[in-house]
Amino acid sequence: MESKKFTLMYPWDENGYKPEVEFELGMCDTGFTMHILVPESNPRREETKHLNYVHLDSCVEWFVNFAPEICDRYFNFEVNANGVMNVAFRKDRYEFQLLTPEEVESLGIEAVIHQDSWEISYIVPFTLIEKYIPGYQFKEGMAIRANFYKCGEKTEQPHFGVWKHPGTPKPDFHRPESFGEIILK
After folding, report:
1. Beta partners for 86?
2. pLDDT, tens digit, 9 for 90 and up, residues 110-140
């Protein structure tokens, strides 16, 4: 699969803070790769334990349904600049199953802080997807449904960016019906 890049809009902008985050989705032999570059100096990064509320920190998020033709659920991958991640397999905002700490560790999350930016990289193994979506098999040309986000609820400049606008007057990321289609080639 050739890598694909995604950029965000900030439809709920209240303070002019709109970091131009770059999400790059790719694939390797074992799963999907994600690399995120965030042009942000001194990010808030209070959370230090996986499965906590990293969305309060400076956070980047990828919500994805890897098999919309056979499954109505999605994963939410939310990670702060420390490389601390909150991950769940969800039907919606209220009905979900958190991944185990061992499953989160299996993503191989790498975080790098630079002077004026930070980066996150990780891999979502096919074996992890298959565990939650029995019968899943990657096929070239298949479609996934996803959305990409940047947020920071408790940062100096609270902000909420999105790739595909959910059509809500306030930020609301748990809207799988607003996910965009991505064709994997």
Report:
1. 78
2. 999 999 999 999 999 999 999 999 999 988 8
Q: Hey, CA dihedral for 118, 20, 26, 77, is it positive or negative?
A: positive
Report pLDDT for 148: 98
Spatial separation of the C-alpha atoms in residues 125 and 106, rounded to whole Å: 8
Six-digit token pair at 160? 């909420």
Q: pTM of the entire structure?
A: 0.95
- In three-state secondary structure terms, 102 is helix
Of 62, 1, 2, the closest CA to residue 34 belongs to 62
* Cα separations in angstroms, 139 against 33, 126, 143, 144: 16, 12, 9, 11
> DSSP for 26-80?
EE-SSEEEEEEEE--SS------STTS-GGGSSEEEEEEES-TTT---EEEEEEE
Q: Are 44 and 155 in contact (CB under 8 A)?
A: yes
Domains belonging to the chain, first-starting first, are 4-183 (2.60.40.1190)
